[in-house]
Design goal:
The protein is α+β, with helices and mostly antiparallel strands and 433 residues long. The protein contains 14 helices and 15 strands.
């Protein structure tokens, strides 16, 4: 094994706009490790990185953050621990980032380093000058593990204007300048996400935009999104579509400050490939328990969660996986449910592709079509959330509101979306009967 070690400084932006160093990320051969700073570990008022790093009390949290052997901190297979894996993009976005960096799509250290100035939430990473030597926390851990670390390796600075935005759909991080959006941000973190249609689904962004309108109509809290003409966006490549979806990032404030957030796939400790989880009852009950126990506003968030769940069933959004639910930290410490994002009617695409495509989504849809009010009551029972009867009552009201409010809104939606949602509202799913 090479005796060179590469490392990055890990920062977490605070609500007052400061950039606080909290640790280091290092790579030694196939070993990838996060080493937290002692002053972060010992700070009882530390800003929250992830609920997955939080124990039952502060002593337990400190034990997690300083553990020598814990899969949340160390991997030896060339991959980041699950929390940091989920900061990286997927699909075309990952391939584009790898091209910009000149590295393999499997090189998770370089991918994170490349996009270090524009990551999800309030995180930022950047190289440490080699002349400063290997940080003590990094060196001491490797020494304790019997690893012979001799020299620091060179790491390039992040690629200017590169970003890591989770998800498969082609996306760009952009800033808004007047009525124009540009991805040439001169190193600034993006304030908006620009989402593109695809050749396969040219109505994709129109579908998602309509999804936002439907979600708002039943009172859900949503990210701000608008359709913009292609001419309003300065993109690095030709795009053969007339419209793009511009979504304002809820992890960025208008003055440029960053607000921390994390996806539920990170909270539950799943890798990106496990984003569809283990099953409705197991995962959604676990999410509700997190909300009930750790949200700063558990009553509001539990109701919002249940209302979203029934709304997504009516909407045919079978892609509401664990990377499309998140918690956000407005004060840097306490979590609340993040706004709705990516509300796409996936079932509208089923007839546009071969029957074997969207296999996972088709299976989810088959289950959700039969999901009844008794099933929802059982889910809430398994989650052990209080006031379950009230949650159910308001969820029923949400379904009734959708049946009243959505028909005129669907007139503006893509035809394929309009057709499948009308069928669901008329009793095509158990919750609407």
């Amino acid at each position: 094994m090479s005796t060179f070690i590469r490392y990055l400084r890990l920062y977490l932006h605070t609500v007052d706009g400061q950039k606080r160093a909290i640790g280091h990320l290092s790579q030694y051969g196939d070993i990838l490790r996060v080493s937290f700073d002692r002053d972060y570990i010992d700070d009882p008022h530390r800003p929250t990185l992830s609920l997955s790093y939080r124990g039952a009390d502060d002593a337990a949290t400190r034990a997690i953050l300083s553990a020598a052997r814990d899969a949340r901190l160390t991997r030896s297979d060339g991959k980041w621990p699950a929390y940091f894996q989920n900061l990286l993009p997927e699909g075309h976005n990952r391939e584009r980032l790898a091209r910009e960096r000149g590295c393999s799509t499997d090189d998770e250290f370089e991918l994170l380093a490349a996009a270090g100035h524009d990551l999800m939430g309030a995180l930022e990473v950047e190289p440490v000058p080699a002349r400063e030597g290997i940080p003590d926390a990094v060196r001491l851990w490797h020494t304790a593990m019997g690893l012979d670390v001799l020299e620091p390796g060179f790491v390039e600075m992040p690629v200017e204007d590169a970003a890591s935005i989770p998800g498969v759909v082609t996306k760009f991080s952009a800033v808004q300048e007047g009525r124009r959006y540009t991805i040439r941000r001169q190193g600034a973190a993006g304030s908006h996400i620009l989402k593109l249609p695809s050749i396969r689904h040219p109505d994709l962004v129109a579908n998602e935009y309509a999804g936002y309108q439907l979600a708002r109509a039943v009172g859900l809290e949503c990210a701000q999104a608008e359709l913009i003409p292609r001419s309003a966006a300065e993109l690095p490549e030709h795009v053969p579509f007339d419209e793009i979806l511009a979504v304002r990032r809820f992890d960025r404030l208008p003055d440029g400050r960053r607000v921390h957030m994390e996806e539920f796939v990170q909270i539950l400790g799943y890798e990106p490939r496990q984003k569809y989880g283990k099953g409705i009852f197991e995962d959604f009950a676990a999410m509700l328990r997190v909300i009930d126990q750790l949200s700063a506003d558990p009553s509001r968030d539990a109701q919002e969660f249940v209302n979203r769940f029934v709304t997504f069933i009516l909407m045919g959004n079978t892609d509401a996986h664990l990377k499309n639910w998140a918690m956000v930290y407005p004060n840097g410490v306490d979590a609340v449910l993040a706004p709705v994002y990516d509300p796409v009617c996936i079932t509208a695409f089923f007839d546009q592709v071969p029957p074997g495509d969207y296999g996972v989504n088709r299976a989810i849809d088959a289950r959700l079509r039969l999901f009844s009010w008794d099933d929802l009551a059982e889910l809430l029972k398994q989650a052990r959330v209080p006031r379950a009867s009230r949650l159910l009552q308001r969820a029923r009201a949400t379904v009734q509101q959708a049946q009243q409010e959505w028909p005129p809104l669907l007139e503006e939606a893509p035809e394929s979306m309009r057709r499948v949602i009308r069928e669901r509202l008329a009793g095509g799913v158990a919750l609407a009967r």
